[in-house]
Amino acid sequence: MSFGRAFSRLTAALALTVVVLASACTSSGTPSASSSQAAAVPVSGGTVTIPIVADPTLNPWSPNAFVESVFVNRVLFDGLTKPGKDLAPAADLATSWETSADGLSWTFHLREGVKWSDGHAFSADDVAFTFNDVVLKKELAANSAGNFSAVKTVVVVDPKTARFDLSRPFAALPSYLAYNAGLLPKHVLAADPLKTTSFNKGIPVSTGPFKVEKYTAGQNVTLVRNDNYFGPKAYLDRVVFSVVPDPNTQIAQALSGDIGIMLLDDKAAVDRVKSASNLVVAARPLVQYYWLALNQVDARFTDTKVRQAIEYAIDRKAIINAVERGYGSIANSAISPALKAFYDPSLESRYPYDAAKAKALLAEAGWIAGPDGVVVKDGKPFRFTMDVGQKGPLEPVNALIQQDLKKVGIVADLNTMEWNSYIQKVVVRRDYTATVNWWIYPSDPDVFPYYHSSTAGAGFNIPGFKDAKLDEILVRGQSTSDLEKRKGVYKELQTYMADNLPYLFLWYPQEIDVLSSSLHGVPDLGLRDGMHYIGEWFLAKK
Amino acid sequence: MSGALVILFTSALTFFFVNLAPGGPASISNMQATPEQRAVLIKAMGLDRPVGERYATWLGGAVRGDLGTSLNTDQPVGVLVAERLPNTLTLAGAALLLACLLGLPMGIFQALRRDTWMDHVLSLASAIGLAVPVFWLGIVLILIFAVSLHVLPSAGIASVADGSFGDRLAHLVLPTVALTTTILPTVVRFMRSSLIDVLGTEYMRTATAKGLSLRVVLGRHGLPNALIPVVSAVGALVPRLLGGTVVTEAVFGWPGMGRLALDAANGRDYPLVTGLVVVIAAIAVATSMIVDLLYVRLDPRIRLA
Fold it and tell me: Are the C-beta atoms of residues B255 and A217 closer than 8 Å to each other?
C-alpha cells in the first residue's frame, strides 16, 4: 500500500527530469499571462476536458464523494447559494435570504421557474428533503453534515420559501450552503438518497448548467448542456471529466493539448508548463492554510512561549519558496487572504523568521541549551516525534521544519507514514505529538469546528487547544450577522489566534491552474469554486 | 482441486492482511469525517464485527458467486471486476503476445550468435530493459509519442468522440510497449539459454553430423525441445505481467483491474481488494493449467492416458 505512495513520489521526481528533457523537443513559446484571458468575445460551442483522479460519485452528500467528485458535483448540483466571485455567498437556487432578529432561523426565497434536468419542477420540498431526510439523518453519515450541526430542521413555508430553524445562531449559514451543499431531487431519491447507483454512478437528475450524458466507469463522465437550466445557456456544448489518476500523465496531456483546464498539484512542474505556448498558468486564491499541530496533551506545548518560539524558529518564507515555488504567503491566523473582507494583513509580520528570538523565548520558558546544543528543562532534552503523512508537500515541509528546529536546540524525529495509516493514527486516534497538515474550509471566517473547545479530543480541533476567550469570540462571531460587526469580531479573532497560536500557522497556499490558451471566461477563483461559473466559460475560435 | 485450494488460501490471506493493515475505508479515514460519522459508517459497513466472522460471511457469499459490495463505491465487487477484467486481459494479452513475437526470435538469434559482440550487446540491452522502471518509461513514451510527435494518444482506452477499433488500437500501443518491457528480457534470456542447452545435446550433434541443414536441425529437433521450458517460463510470467499492469494502468489511465486494485488498497476497500486478488489468483491457476496442456502438445514424451 505504501508502495503506491512511494511510487507516485518517485514518478514525480523522475518525471520532472523527463519533462525538462522533453522541453528540448517541443516548441517553447513565450510564457502567456493570465490577463490575456480577458479579451476574447464569448462564442458557443466546443468541449472542455478536465482531468480527475478517480471515478466520481455524483451525489454531493455521499460519504464516498471525495475530491474527484467535488469538481463534477459543483457543476451538476446547485445549492441555495454559491461562492460569489468575491467569495461572499451569492444567489443560486435561492435569490434572497434573511435571518430572524434572534439569529435562530434563516429564511431563503427560492428562484422562480427552476426545473430539474428531467423537467420536474424544483421546490422547497427538495430543500427540506435534502436537509431533513439526508443531511440531518445521523444514520446516513452524509458527507460534510457536520457543517450543519446548528440546523435543527428545515420548514417548507410555501413552495418557494424554505426556513432553516437553528439550535444556536449560525451567521455563516449562507456561506456554508455554498460549500458542497448541492440540493437533491426528492422525486428521484426519496427511496434511497445516498446509495442509488443509477444516480451516483449513472445519470443523476440535477439542476446545473450541464447534465450527465454518459458515465463510463474508469474512463470519463461526459456532460452536455442542460436545456432546462434556469440561467443563461452555457457556451460550451460539452464538458468531459476524464479519469487520469497519474499527475504526471495529466501534465503530459495538458502539454499535448488534450486538456482544457486542470489543477496543478505538483508545483515543481510549473515552469515547464509555463513555457508551453498552448497553455496558460494562473495562480488562484484558496481558502486553505497549512498548520503544525502541537498536541496539548503534551505539557511542553501548553506554554504559549514555547509555541511562539517554534513559530519564530520556522523559516516559513523558505518553505513557501521551496515547496510552493513562491505561490503562497505566510499565515499567522486561520483566516485566508482569499476572504478579502475579513483578512487582517497587519498580522503578516507578526512572527518573522528569527532563531535568536526563538532561543530567547525558549530560555524564558525554562529551556536552556545544554553542551550538545539541545535545549533542556528539568534534566530532559526537548525532543519529540512528528508524524508525517505522505501527501502533497508534507514530506519536504517536515524535513525543513526539522532542520529549523535543530538550529534552536529542539530535536524532532520524523515518522513517515502512508496517508491512510496516518489519518487513522493522527486524526482518528489522536495518537501523536506533533504533525503538519492543512485545512480547506467554507468561504467564511467562521472556523468554529476547528478551534472551539467542544471539538477538542475527537473533532476537528486537532491540537486539542481549549481556551475560554477563544470560545467566546468564536460563538460571538456565529451570533453576529451584520457584516461590519462580523468584520470586527473576526479581526479580534485573528489577533487572538496570532498571539496564542492554538495551531502553529504556517502558510496560505495559492492554487495553480493550468488552462488551454483558447479557454476563456474562467473566474479568478480556486478551480472548485470556479466550477460554479462553468456556464460562462467559452472556447475562442483559433 | 489444488487450484481451488490455492484460491481459497489466497483469499483468506488477503482478507486478513488487508484488514490488519492500519487505516480504514476512505470515508472513515477522511480528515473531514466527524467522530459521529465514523461511528455510523463503521457500523454500517459491519467493521465492528470480528475479522474472522466477516471472512466467513464473505466466503459464504463468494462460493455462491457474490464477492460482496465495495465499501468505497457501494457497487457489487463482481460488477466492478467484470467491467475492468476485459481491459486488463486485453492489455496483458497484447503485452504477452508482443513479448513472444520479439523475445523468441531475439533469444534464438542470441543463442546462435552466442558470445559474439551482438550477443553481448543484446544481453546488455536486456539488463537495461529489466532495470528501467515502467512508470518512468511510460511517461517518457507519452512525452515522445503523444506530446512531441502527436502520433499516439497519451492516455485512456478510447477517445470520447471516437471509440472505433483503430482508435482503441492506437490507445493500446504505448501501454503495451511499456508493459512488455517488464517481461521481454526474461523471455529472451529463457529462449537463449534453453536453445543453447539444446544445441549442446548429442541428438543435435548427430543431426548436424548426418548433414542436415541448420534450418532443418533447428526446426525439427532444436526448437521443439528448446521451447518446452520456455512455455512454462512464459506461463510463470503471467502473474508478474498482472503485477505490472498496476503501474502501467495508473500511468496510462487504463481502466483495468490493476488501477482498481491500487485505488482499492489505498482506500482500504477490503471486499474489493480480496475480490480482485481472488480473480487474479484464478487467472494464475488457469494459466498454469493451460501451460500443462501445452506441455502435452509440445513434449511427445508426455501423453495423457
Answer: yes
Confidence band, pLDDT 50/70/90 cuts, at residue B288: confident
- For residue A50, give the C-alpha cell: 478536465
Where do the H-state alpha helices sit in A184-303? 186-189, 197-200, 247-255, 270-274
What gap in Å lies between CA B80 and CA A199, rounded to an integer?
16
Residue B137 phi, psi dihedral angles, 5° rounding: -60, -40
Which residues sit opposite A388 in a β-bridge?
Answer: A416
- Does residue B271 sit at the A interface (CB-CB below 8 Å)? no
Residue that is written with C-alpha cell 512454462 in the block: B232
Instruction: Determine contact, residues A540/A358, Cβ cutoff 8 Å.
Output: no
Q: Which of B88, B251, B259, B268 to mutate to test the interface with A (most CBs of A within 10 A)?
A: B251
The C-alpha of B5 sits at a distance from chain A's nearest C-alpha, in angstroms, of 26
A413, containing H or E segment: strand A411-417
Give the count of beta carbons closer than 10 Å to the beta carbon of residue A454.
12
Please indicate if any CB of chain B lies within 8 Å of the CB of A24: no
Determine contact, residues A153/A132, Cβ cutoff 8 Å.
yes
Residue A12's SS3 state is helix
A23-81 per-position pLDDT tens digit:
433 333 333 444 444 567 899 999 999 999 999 999 999 999 999 999 999 999 999 99
Closest C-alpha to A410, from A292, A542, A501 = A292
A/B interface, count of CB pairs below 8 Å:
180
**Residue B75 contacts A, CB cutoff 8 Å:** yes
Kindly indicate the confidence band of residue A158, based on its pLDDT and cuts at 50, 70 and 90: very high
- In this predicted structure, the answer to whether residue B240 has a pLDDT above a threshold of 90 is no
Contact A163, A150 (CB under 8 A): no
B236 touches chain A (CB under 8 A): no
Q: What is the pLDDT of residues A502-511, one digit of tens each?
A: 999 999 999 9
User: What is the C-alpha to C-alpha distance for residues A466 and B155, in angstroms, rounded to an integer?
Assistant: 50
CA A128 to CA A109: how far, in whole Å? Answer: 13
> In this complex, which of A253, A424, A439 lies closest to B23 when CB atoms are compared?
A424
| CA-to-CA separations, A9 to A246, A248, A390, A449, in angstroms, rounded | 11, 11, 9, 32
Between CA A391 and CA A140 the distance in angstroms is: 29
Q: Does B144 touch chain A (CB under 8 A)?
A: yes
Per-residue pLDDT reduced to its tens digit, B65-77: 899 999 999 999 9
pLDDT at A441: 95
Q: Which of A438, A347, A352, A349 minimizes the C-alpha distance to A397?
A: A438
Instruction: Specify the pLDDT at position B179.
Output: 94
Half-sphere exposure of A218 (CA within 13 A, CB side): 27
Task: Considering only the beta carbons, identify the residue of B21, B150, B259 that sits closest to A245.
Answer: B259
SS3 B169: helix
Residue with cell 429564511: A107
Residues of B in contact with A256 (CB under 8 A): 142, 146-147, 150, 154
